[in-house]
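Changelog entry: the ADP-ribosylation factor-like protein 11 record was regenerated in this release. Current contents:
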Amino acid sequence: MFQSKVQITRTGGGKSLVCKQKESVILMGLDSAGKSTLLARLLTGQVMETTPTIGFNVGTLDLDKKTSLTVWDVGGQKSMRPNWRYYLDNCKALVFVVDSSDRTRMPEAQKALKKILSDEKLQGIPLMVLANKKDLPTCMTIREISNQLDLPSYSERLWEIQACSALKGLGLQQAFMSVSKLIKKS
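Regenerated structure tokens:
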């Protein structure tokens, strides 16, 4: 499990303390979508071997001098999904990760996303969909995934979709900078 860290920055010759603003972001998606690999890559810059998450992993991602995100990676197995709602308190953004190379599980992902977004704690909370595994030749396009997940139907919600590769580290930093911007807009 990854550990969260507290970051305090001294400014003005040590006379005042400025605490970074930390926003809580929940990382959800079906099992094997690559959530833990993605979080580990973001936090360490390296690929780490992961096992199916039972419970959660958490870490702090520093985006700039003033902003950091506390990212909660919640297990995606079918037996864990009823517990997702317990992680939504103080959530400022939902990052939903899908395996863009697994067409057969898109209906299941669409159903899981729709169910979690119906929770009243997520009302008005922005959504970032990460189409992971874009490095694989069998991956779907952003448009295909958007349609499969029925994203256009969420017209009352701020949302974005971006392709990424947790394994290669492609698009991750940019995606979480966009998450930060979505939080500020909401």
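Residues 26 and 72 are 5 Å apart (CA to CA).
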